[in-house]
Amino acid sequence: MKLNGNYSKLFENYLFAEVSDRAAKYQSAHPDKKILRLGIGDVTLPLADEVIKAMHLAVDEMSKKESFRGYGPYEGYGFLRESIKNYYKTFGVELNLNDIFVSDGAKSDLGNILDIFSNDNTVLVPDPVYPVYADTNIMAGRKIIFTNANEENGFLPMPEKVVKADIIYICSPNNPTGAAYSKEQLKEWVNYANSQGSIILYDAAYECFVKDDSLARSIFEVEGAKSCAIEFCSFSKIAGFTGTRCGYTVIPEELEKGGISLNKMWLRRQSTKFNGVPYIVQKGAEAVFSERGMAQIQQNLDYYRQNAKIIAECLDGLKIRYTGGKNSPYIWLKCPMGMGSWEFFDYLLNGAQVVGTPGEGFGENGKGFFRLTAFGSREVTQEAVLRIKNLLNNSN
Amino acid sequence: MKLNGNYSKLFENYLFAEVSDRAAKYQSAHPDKKILRLGIGDVTLPLADEVIKAMHLAVDEMSKKESFRGYGPYEGYGFLRESIKNYYKTFGVELNLNDIFVSDGAKSDLGNILDIFSNDNTVLVPDPVYPVYADTNIMAGRKIIFTNANEENGFLPMPEKVVKADIIYICSPNNPTGAAYSKEQLKEWVNYANSQGSIILYDAAYECFVKDDSLARSIFEVEGAKSCAIEFCSFSKIAGFTGTRCGYTVIPEELEKGGISLNKMWLRRQSTKFNGVPYIVQKGAEAVFSERGMAQIQQNLDYYRQNAKIIAECLDGLKIRYTGGKNSPYIWLKCPMGMGSWEFFDYLLNGAQVVGTPGEGFGENGKGFFRLTAFGSREVTQEAVLRIKNLLNNSN
Asked: Nearest to residue B252, comparing CAs of B75, B99, B388?
């Protein structure tokens, strides 16, 4: 029996596991210190009332024979897919119901979608980026090439005709840099993909933070995207579903290569390796899109936006350069005093008991950068900002 | 961009999709007829009261900032893994907490586990069997060899030394045949795997139906299994979680090949491509193992066992040969009058409006066989049995 040898090419630790490991070690050595976490992109506000109500009702349905639900459709219940379709309409995108697949989160589908592609493809991944894109392709043994996202291009790399790539990852608003593509910029990527016959895997997990109308909420706002793109989205950030687990993937029915429908391949994959998302969770997710649900959720998003502003103002005061914080829950900063990413991580952990995420965990171009998130509670964010100010002002 | 060409080697339709498709076509042509479904292995009893209570409490926790849960551990919450560990103790199996991974269902993990194995392995799959084992390996391009499960061996094939296999699937109690291995028989498989350096993927999804003490509930009841086996189990059948989605996978920490821990590889896979099971669902699953939960669940299992008995008695009366029905929710019968599987499917659908599952959908050796399940409601089971009796008695 042979194991998948590609796993040995992965780094020892998954980034966030390493971060929480170091924090745990610090905590056990200093049990009296209170660690403030602005590292992993986890939310802190509870679920919206409408979601809670819907889930209680769904639990009750599961308690009675007449309303009990067994196996659901592999692609998700019609009621939820209908709501997602209507949500897309609010930013001008028309989808078919069959384009939409409900999932247990964007992360699962971003990894699992690779099942439908040959391992003999070249993958273009921006650097820095969410580690899952590269790691899942390393596991499958695909050739990966990186495109540089750096200060020069505002962390928004554009296509280069000389680069040949079969599968292209785009995350906008970006994790970790907070940078977001305009519709015009995305149009260039769509044209590039269509001209090369490539597929764009578009991670829209942070679309709900986009306020600026010139920026894209969905790649399908761009003409031509339906013949080259698959979009992944999640309820994690819009509605605090990080521990409730729901997302969706949009594969246009018209997306095909050599006469083979990618939508049908994905349905085959899901019906073979997946059994759908809990009914209770799908009912909760549906409530996100109700009028009241949306109003409650916008309040939560505004709360996180205010956190981002607090962090940004702190960095302004310290004259630290950063991107993001607007149209994004992430603040991507240049480590002060020429420090490396993990060096700054340890510096903040030891000196201020604040945990962030080292930029270099997201790629070579992340070296010397650091990610903070706006998903903490207001109190934690304010306290963290205070401690960072004190630490850095005293070290100057 | 190249698609995964292996998908073209799959049959057009996933078995259960084809079954429901034919049933739907019949229904739309005969809108006045009431179809009775004893086909797919879906449960019909609602969730147990203790599970419902636990889920309501968990929903409430998600509504308050102090008790809200975001991302959980990739491998599942400690409280649930502890309960599973204690459950295994009741049939004499000692596990470490780290051996246990909570999943969204056995089907997902049975497919996804293949990520950690090279595509260059030979896979041994019993025929007939749950289609997911073969389909997931066809998708990856692995070489598959089949071992015959038939009337001669009581649908329980035993290892043959001349057959070299790297990955071995065993499902006991078996889907679709209802046959279950004794501990002595499993010991032969474990010895075979250990001597060949193979891995057994053991599907224990129906273990809760085992009443006979000589039969295995877990492969880890057999000495030597921890160095060659991975076990998959599910809350779907024990607790009616088909639409609630929870399962678990046991990979002993000591299971390794060439010094590489399969347990660690799986954790790496899960932390990269999965984000855990909903907190609410894990709380519901925990309640299954409470004293009251277990008592309620045993009542449900007895209800299904009684259904199996009703079906078995009907077949006895009609002098139709079958296996299963004891220690299993499945009844695997030989199609009467020399009919083929799909022929009998259409015969029952047209003549009695009863939907079962054609045996040949599970493999070559399933030709001429048919699967009925005990998961229907009592009323549906009784009515279906009556219709089958009438149809077959009138045709004699």
From this structure: B99
ipTM: 0.95
* 8 Å CB contact of A72 and B273: no
Beta strands in chain A (DSSP E): 36-37, 100-103, 122-127, 143-148, 167-171, 199-203, 229-234, 247-250, 256-257, 260-261, 322-324, 330-334, 354-355, 357-358, 369-373
Which value, to the nearest 10 degrees, does the dihedral of the CA atoms of residues B128, B132, B135, B137 take? -100
Four-point Cα dihedral A272, A278, A284, A287, nearest 10: 40
Among B238, B245, B235, residue whose Cα is nearest residue A278:
B245
Q: How far is CA A188 from CA A156, A181, A185, A207, A231, in A?
A: 12, 11, 5, 19, 17
Whether B177 contacts B321, CB under 8 Å: no
- Provide DSSP, A277-307: --HHHHHHHHHHTSHHHHHHHHHHHHHHHHH
Q: pLDDT tens across B115-126, in order?
A: 999 999 999 999
Per-residue pLDDT at A317 exceeds 80 = yes
pLDDT digits (tens, 9 = 90+) for A287-310: 999 999 999 999 999 999 999 999
Contacts of B43 in chain A (CB under 8 A): 70
CA nearest to B74 within chain A = A17
Mutation pick from A136, A275, A375 vs chain B, by most beta carbons of B within 10 Å, is: A275
From A55, which residue of chain B is nearest by alpha-carbon distance? Answer: B59
Q: How confident is the model at residue B16 (pLDDT cuts 50, 70, 90)?
A: confident
- The reply to whether A282 touches chain B by the CB within 8 Å rule is no
**Nearest alpha-carbon partner for A346 in A330, A322, A370, A365:** A370
Q: How far apart are CA B43 and CA B120, in angstroms?
A: 37
Predicted TM-score (pTM) of the model is 0.95
Cα separation of the two ends of chain A: 58
Would you tell me which residues 173-192 of chain B have a C-beta closer than 8 angstroms to some C-beta of chain A? none
